[in-house]
């Protein structure tokens, strides 16, 4: 009984492949003549099928976009967490040396970044230094695992 079911499935797959191949090999005139014919498909059915396909595609894209958003947000949370952990293990002096090293490589930095940093560095205090260091780590300009270099 199970073999009959498998044979039926295999038979239907084969039949379906033959129908698809036949349809692909048919001329435009033959295909057009089937629309609204007694043995063909109606424009209304074509429109309904197209609408159903578009709805499914939209659902898939929306779900995929939502998953990508969630993955991105999780990645951001993990990055923020690792930056916070790294900041807790680094002294203010090491942060200042790292910031100075980045600023000394100013020829390889975008001008807008230097300008923004200079505006931010107008603030004085440990919190401003920590925030500037974290920002540079998040931008990938400072490696928190290689602070002394």
Helix-strand pattern: HHHHHH
Strand content: under 5%
The multimeric state of the shown protein is single chain
The helix fraction, in percent, is over 70%
- Characterize the largest beta sheet: strand count, sense, and whether it forms a barrel: none
Q: Would you mind describing this structure in some detail?
A:
The protein is mainly alpha-helical and 149 residues long. It is 76% helix and 0% strand. The chain is rod-shaped, with a radius of gyration of 31 Å.
Descriptive key words:
149 residues, mainly alpha, rod-shaped
What does this entry show, briefly?
Helices cover 76% and strands 0% of the residues. The chain has six helices and no strands.
Produce the secondary structure layout.
Blueprint: H1 2-25, H2 28-34, H3 43-88, H4 92-104, H5 111-120, H6 126-138
